[in-house]
Design a protein that fits this description.
Length: about 425
């Protein structure tokens, strides 16, 4: 039995074409010559226009990074491409078609028939596991339960092993942390939220000698407790102390390949078993699982961040397909007048213009509509690595530089 490859989105030629859409504007601003040609459908390139767009984006980032509360939300898209992480389609192929691409194994075909999985033209590993979980909730079946456990073991390995591949490139993660962690130490710490299970951020921070506050204790066997997010690291001198540099908070909303559950406690574990691994496997039931610990603690802190005044949240590689995360973001931008959103995706343009069709979440259209109404929502069509390249190196301006910038802005409006 064979399956069809998922359909390509509308305007596939726009994938990754670097462009910026500020709030209230209808026309995307190209950031490269190639993007200009594709978006404008011409061979003539306006270099001055591209330069102006890049300057506008740079100034937007410079302003955003001076906001007291800064957060970065990394979806599954940040682990694709050069990083080498698996996509949902990769997981489907590895689990269901291990021998011949797009051809179901005999065991997989048997399980699909048992649970009556019907999405044969556009298969989805999340929907399949959801179907299996629903079936097993009412029926005991060793064939299905064994196969599901094998799939979860495969997901655990696939989200762990790719970082050991010499070809895996996490330089974008290092560059992101290096840039954003240079904020003034008296400001709240950078908060990184992610739905990814992998260890990309922890590995990148270790490479840079940075400290990751992830909710786990600083004991020999690290145990999760939300109170550790309220702790910080200071440098003490003889008669004074100040906050240490290079510290950030990491909140892994769906768990991690390095967490294991033992009774009511969550411990750091270098190689957890699928049965006790503390992560929310891909499934439509993620919403319900998000209200179990430690995910509830992490989700609560994410919701708290969205409600804080003077906050900026940058989002990359997140498709807005998780309603328990998408709806709070959508609600927060409407209720928190000082919240700034920067939304980046490799197919951002297509997601907006698909208007909830062809696999795109309807939240893209909703966000775009709010931006047209003047809400502080900025869209960037680019890959994660390209986005990081546009984020400026953060450096606190001296009083003289602040005054000069203020005069320059006033002069520009005159």
């Amino acid at each position: 039995m064979t399956f069809k490859v998922p359909p390509s989105p509308i305007n596939a030629a726009l994938k990754g074409q670097e462009a910026y859409l500020p709030p209230g504007m209808m026309e995307w601003q190209p950031l490269t010559a190639q993007a200009f040609k594709v978006l404008k459908e011409t061979d003539e390139v306006d270099e001055s226009g591209i330069g102006a767009s890049r300057s506008a984006l740079s100034e937007m980032f410079s302003t955003a990074l001076q906001i007291p509360n800064v957060g970065f939300f990394a979806g599954s898209g940040t682990s694709l491409g050069p990083v080498g992480g698996p996509s949902m389609w990769d997981l489907w192929q590895q689990a269901m078609c291990p021998d011949v691409q797009d051809v179901l194994s005999e065991n997989a075909a048997r399980v699909l028939d048992i649970v009556h999985y019907g999405e044969r033209d556009n298969p989805n590993i999340e929907h399949f596991l959801s179907q299996c979980d629903s079936y097993l909730a009412f029926t005991e079946n060793d064939v299905v339960s064994t196969f599901v456990n094998d799939v979860k073991a495969l997901i655990l390995r696939a989200c762990s092993d790719f970082l050991t591949n010499p070809a895996s490139d996490i330089s974008s993660y290092r560059n992101l942390l290096q840039k954003l962690a240079r904020r003034r130490v008296r400001d709240p710490r950078l908060k990184v939220f992610t739905t990814n299970y992998d260890m990309c951020f922890e590995t990148a921070a270790s490479d840079l000698g940075m400290v990751t506050i992830d909710g786990f204790s600083h004991t020999r066997r690290r145990r999760f407790d939300g109170k550790h997010f309220t702790y910080d690291i200071v440098r003490r001198e003889t008669d004074s102390h100040e906050f240490a540099e290079g510290v950030y908070q990491l909140l892994k909303l769906h768990g991690s390949v390095s967490w294991s559950r033992e009774g009511k406690d969550i411990y750091e574990d270098i190689a957890p078993r699928p049965a006790n691994a503390c992560l929310i496997y891909p499934a439509k039931g993620k919403y319900q699982q998000a209200f179990l610990q430690p995910h509830l603690e992490l989700l609560s802190r994410f919701l708290e961040f969205l409600r804080q005044p003077n906050s900026c949240l940058m989002i990359s590689g997140f498709g807005f397909n998780d309603d328990h995360l998408s709806e709070p973001i959508y609600s927060a931008i409407q209720s928190n007048p000082s919240l700034k959103l920067i939304l980046c995706d490799f197919q951002c343009i297509a997601h907006i213009h698909n208007r909830g069709h062809n696999g795109s979440s309807p939240y893209w259209e909703k966000m775009h509509d709010l931006a047209q109404q003047g809400f502080d929502i900025h869209f960037i069509n680019s890959s994660f690595s390209d986005l990081v390249g546009y984020i400026p190196h953060l450096r606190s301006a001296s009083p003289a530089e602040q005054l000069a910038n203020a005069v320059r802005r006033v002069g520009g409006r005159a």
